[in-house]
Amino acid sequence: MHVFGFAGYSGAGKTTLIEQLIPLLGAAGLRVSLLKHTHHDFDIDKPGKDSWRFRTAGAQEVMLAGAQRWALMHERREAAEPTLADLLAHMSPCDLVLVEGFRADDIPKIEVFRPSTGRERLHPQFPGVVAVASDVRIEGDLPCLDINDAPAVAAFLRSYLGI
């Protein structure tokens, strides 16, 4: 299972780029999964629903299952935030896991960068950056990909991983 990341500050376009890459990689015959890190408290459950009631009653895990999908919610309670490796261990086998976030983890990743956000570049302070995707030409030691050319980014990713 190949793992490849996308890192950058909020508003740079990571989610939009990944959303465009998934069908392109799927059309190339790859089974693609996604793992997204969030710094915000989030909840996919709704107060009052049975699953919410079970979780708030203290269940460690609650699985929702239907004909179209299933979802497993695991309560961390007081446990430390899981590592990328911990989370990948829960993923079903596939050809490629795209990772959004986890910028400090040493996996190959594309830095998604837009100077208009006013933020600094992540490279070289964070490990694993193998290219940059931007809406402007970035000079430097890394390949610069056009963030608006998802087919070219997909081709780079497949070439880099040899898939």
From TrEMBL:
<dbReference type="InterPro" id="IPR052539">
    <property type="entry name" value="MGD_biosynthesis_adapter"/>
</dbReference>
<protein>
    <submittedName>
        <fullName>Molybdopterin-guanine dinucleotide biosynthesis protein B</fullName>
    </submittedName>
</protein>
<dbReference type="Pfam" id="PF03205">
    <property type="entry name" value="MobB"/>
</dbReference>
<dbReference type="InterPro" id="IPR004435">
    <property type="entry name" value="MobB_dom"/>
</dbReference>
<feature type="domain" description="Molybdopterin-guanine dinucleotide biosynthesis protein B (MobB)">
    <location>
        <begin position="3"/>
        <end position="135"/>
    </location>
</feature>
<dbReference type="InterPro" id="IPR027417">
    <property type="entry name" value="P-loop_NTPase"/>
</dbReference>
